[in-house]
Amino acid sequence: MTESASAPDSEQGVGAAVPLSPLHTNGFSLGVQAVDGNARATLLRTPRGDIATPVFMPVGTQATVKGLTPGELRSVGAQIVLCNTYHLWLRPGPDVVSQLGGLHRFMGWTGPILTDSGGFQVFSLAKLRTLDDDGVVFRSHVDGTRMTLTPEVAMEVQARLGSDIAMVLDECPPADANGAALDRAMARTTAWAKRSLAVDVNQITGDPTRAQARFGIVQGACDVKRRLAHLNEVSALDVDGVALGGLSVGEPPPEMYRVLQGVAPHMPRDRPRYLMGVGTPYDLLEAIGQGVDMFDCVLPTRNARTGQAWTWQGRVNLRQSRHRLDPLPLDEQCACPVCSTWSRGYLSHLFRVKEMLGPRLVTLHNLWFYRRLTVAAREAIVGGRFSEWSRQVVQGLRDGDEIGLAGSS
Ligand SMILES: [Zn+2]
């Protein structure tokens, strides 16, 4: 095991001498610093800070990573956060956010922010959707207001929020969609990406200097041939990064891993590679091994709020009575502020009496763990031993898991 007691930012500065290639948007560049098999360690430079990959982006759905201050996010090593355009579009709305100085000022986070397009939430949360080539008409899940999300609207809202990386609107077909439905979703996603790229962000914001990178999205469900064809289409566009969408949407983990093995190594080398909405530590290790750089998922923060902690020995469920008198920290190998101060017994007590400190502390620990997992993966890639290291970590995670479910949850 490679967990060390060093601070999460210990690898900063690695590879400073490696030349960075500019991306399509001013102020953004990418340098590949080490390659080990298909896995890679890169440095993504943005106007608001550098991101060493592999990187996990904590999810700040409503312009807050639930329960944590930006300072606490920094303290667990967060380099970039993700915010959800759908939620912020509905409440408080891009007008409010931009009048209050933009998303960074609004939430007090000075580092890079990635926003999604809003499409995924429209498909999963909104009511009464109608979808055509123009976009999606839906009713807000908050108050029933009728709204229209088009590629242009998605870019406009993200421009006014002021994120650093914007995602183009895509159509995410269900995991069990048939071939014709997949083809239609892929064709629509490509057409929507072109329309998104045609939007002039600086005209919307009235600020000619503001730079916002734009990532394209590859669909195709679990059909590797279709995924590769769509990857070619999307990579040919002037996108700054390429994302895999529509995975971890209900398909079994081995199916997702098969797709990753078939597709991820073929993603463009000169641009960031992002796997959207994934996942467990197992999923991250598999995807990193296939060359993915960026991840986001609600899992570590959502798990934390129900008393589930991720450790190098798998998951700990603080609601189990066995932890009542447990004097040990969540993870003896963890150097996070939570593990160096409090016992499982105390944390377990907080959950039993429903004190808000419980979810906060486990959120801090889980994000620290995800950060350490990606930092250690980066070190293993740089050291040319990723595959063996990853095998050992997976073994440790499976052996000690209290919940008994290995793989995606
Ligand atoms: Zn910890």
Helical proportion, percent range: 25-40%
CATH architecture of the largest domain: Alpha-Beta Barrel
CATH fourth-tier homologous superfamily of the largest domain:
Queuine tRNA-ribosyltransferase-like
The ligands bound in this entry are:
zinc ion
Averaged pLDDT: 93
SS-derived structural category = alpha/beta
Which segments are poorly predicted (pLDDT under 50) over 5 or more consecutive residues? 1-13, 405-409
Strand arrangement, major sheet:
5-15-14-13-12-11-7-6
Quaternary organisation:
single chain
Shape: globular
Largest sheet geometry: 8 strands, parallel
Count of alpha/pi helices? 15
DSSP strand tally:
17
CATH fold assignment of the largest domain: TIM Barrel
> Proportion of β residues?
15-25%
State the domain count.
Answer: 2
Estimated radius of gyration? 21 Å
Give the end-to-end Cα distance, rounded to a whole number of Å: 24 Å
The CATH class name of the largest domain reads Alpha Beta
Provide a concise account of the structure shown.
The protein is α/β, with parallel strands linked by helices. It folds into 2 domains: 29-297, Queuine tRNA-ribosyltransferase-like (TIM Barrel), CATH 3.20.20; 307-400, no CATH class. It contains 15 helices and 17 strands.
List the helices and strands and how they pair.
Elements: E1 21-22, E2 29-36, E3 39-46, E4 49-52, E5 55-57, H1 70-75, E6 81-83, H2 85-90, H3 94-99, H4 102-107, E7 113-115, H5 119-124, E8 127-131, E9 136-139, E10 146-149, H6 151-161, E11 165-167, H7 179-197, H8 201-205, E12 213-218, H9 224-235, E13 241-244, H10 253-263, E14 273-275, H11 281-289, E15 294-296, H12 299-305, E16 308-311, E17 314-317, H13 344-352, H14 357-382, H15 386-400
Parallel strand pairs: 5-15, 6-7, 7-11, 11-12, 12-13, 13-14, 14-15
Antiparallel strand pairs: 1-2, 2-3, 3-4, 8-9, 9-10, 16-17
Helix pairs in contact: 6-7, 7-9, 9-10, 11-14, 11-15, 12-14, 13-14, 14-15
The chain binds zinc ion.
